[in-house]
Structures are given as structure tokens and as C-alpha cells.
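Quick note —
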Amino acid sequence: MKVLIVDDQLVSRKKVQKIFEGFCTPDAVDCGQAALDAYRKSWEDEAPYQLITLDISMPDMNGMEVLQTIREQETAQGISKDQQVKVLMVTSTSDKDTVVTCIQAGCDDYLVKPLNKEAISAKLEKFGLIVAKETQSESTLRKMVETTIERFNRGDIELPVMPQVVREIQSAIDNAASTIDAISQVIEKDPSISLKLIATANSPIFRGVDKIETVTQAISRIGLKDVQDLVTAIANKSLYETKNRQLKQLLDKLWLHSLACGHAARLISEKTVRQFIPRAFLAGLVHDIGSVLLLKSLGEIISPKMELDQAELVNSVWEVHTSFGSALLDKWDYSEDLVKLARLHEWTRFEPDTEKPVLIINLADNLTHSIGFGFFDKGEMDLTALDSTRLLEIDADTLDAIGQEVSALMSESAKRIAD
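Predicted structure written out below.
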């Protein structure tokens, strides 16, 4: 059987490829236009695809548009319905309207992320095909992730609360009339953050002649921009806590990735879009917040005695973390631009008119992977080949310099925030 997998996200694409490799050698592409090109070529070579898995959300041409184009071409070529390529639409939501629209557009069935062997096998058996069944471990993890998703959709998950101090300090800094004393009063509402800020001001990296004893003095010594980033990081760190030992390992790794991404986003902004600098660190810090929500929620239902396949769990989280993250930020009433960043940052194809903050977070996310602060397994990558690098017009030397600076910042800030 000849299969084409269409998915913009690398990890999802590799996961589906692995499932299908049990009974065929699938082709895979990362965008809508590439899918249409591959589809046309298969007919030219007289070896047409029999099945296409088609992701709905893609940057250049969404899955619905690809499906409609394929069906129009089949009609123009006089291909009978029973000879048409079978199309499984892939979506990150089970929203009824989305499913109905897929069916009306001519798909044969649909799949909801996170994908798994059992779901794909059930769909393909309807087409007279058989694939390998999932293992017991895969089945258990799948059901846990599905349960978490269902609880989230029902509103049964008690969402973590973003500390109010983060919003208040952002508002105070955005207000040109705010004084250092006014900003200090906001920070002093949280004793833990106040103490860490004062300790930082007295650390070797900032230490002066006199000992710092107040938040106002700490702000004056550290600088307003660095204070904003530091307070944001300290406040967010509490979101990554769990009592489950195995999930704590993953959340600790995710925290380091998010912190590194915050630093990288700010440094990239300084080289490209300076007006984004005040929001860059926060945007980088929360870009993977959907993964945090999933892992924390799973910690409530996974027994500490259960041996987890962490790689399988991370792959399952990957497939839904962008939609989870954007939904969480929306519930927190964050601005639409941050919601969009969480939803789009994993795309690999971007058009010239893509908003620059999206490109900055995409590049920051990938850069942190390249210097050893990654979370998802993206394999080897050439940062200079990324669309985000090209559209931001950043050269290899600048990328290397930013990477070195992020590494240096991480060696100091990760320890300072955790203490």
C-alpha cells in the first residue's frame, strides 16, 4: 500500500511514519503544497497513493484546502469514487463542527490527536487494512492522555493560576508614569519573590559595595528590564512543581527549556524586532505551557509506582501541547498575540508575511534544542535552514553568539531562580 503522511510538525510526522512502517514504507511531507506535488507525481508515475493522512492546521495551505484540491483534480480526471485516494484528516480537536466540515469536504474519516496505533488501526481496518496493535504500555499512556484531554474539555481540570504579580508588574512597567517605588510595591506583595530578588541583587554577579536590603534597592542595582524577566521567571517556576517523581524529571527538563527559550527570545528580539523586547522573555517562557498543563494533570492520575515510557509520553504530549497551551493562555486572559505564539510556534513553514514574534519564538525554541536545552526530540537540525532564521535575516555567526550567551545566562539564572 502506498501512503502519504502530511504534517507540518516533525515529531508528529515521525510518529505516524513509525506506526505505518510496520506494514509499508510511507512518504512524508511537511506542507500542503508539497502534498499536492507528491500527489500529482504519484499519478504521473502511475503509482498513485491509496491513503493520505492530512493534518488540518498547516501554515501555507491548510488541510481542508489540500483535500478540496485533490477531490477537484480527481473529478477532473474522471476518477471514480471507489478509486479515489482515501483521506484521513488529522485534527487536534474533536470539535463537532470541524469533523462535519471535514466530512463535507470529502474526507473518508478523521483522527484526533494525540495519534496512536489503536486509533489508526481501527480506521484502516474500515478500509480493509491491518496494522500492528499497540503495546500494553502504549495503550495505558494513550488512555491517560485521552482522559486528561476529556477532563480539560469538560472543564474538570483545576487549572494552575499564573501568579498575579506577573501581570501587575507588566502593567506597572508599561505605564510610563510608574516609579521604582510603585513597581517595588507590586513585587512586595509576594514575599518569596521579594526575598529572591534581594538575594540576587546581593549575589556575586550584581554585588556592590553596600548590602541590598529592600526591593527598591534591588531594582536600582539590577535594572528594570532584568528585574521584570527575573520576577516573571521566579513566578512561573511554581507552575512546574509535582509530587510525582517521574513526571518531576520531565517538568524539571521542561522548565530549563522554557527558561532558555525566554533568554533566547529576548536576545533574538534585540537583534531583530526591538519593540518586542519587553514581551519576549515572557513569550519564550510560556510558549510550551500546554506541556506543563498536561504533565501536571497526568501527575494526578499516574501512580508513582508505574514505570513510564517517558519517550512515548513526551511524544503524546507533543501532539496536543500547542492547542492546550493556547487554550490555557486564553483562559488566563492573555493577549491574542501570546495565544497565537503558543499555537503556532512549532510550525516549520512560514510565509513572508508571518508576524515577527511568531518567528522569534520558533527560532528561540529550536536554538535552545541545538545547545542542549531541548525538551522534545527534534533530532539534528540546521538552524540556518529554518524559515524563521531566513525571514528574520539572522546569519550563522549571530546565531552562534546568541547560543553562547544563552548558555552563559542559563548557568547563572537557573541556579539563582531555583535556590
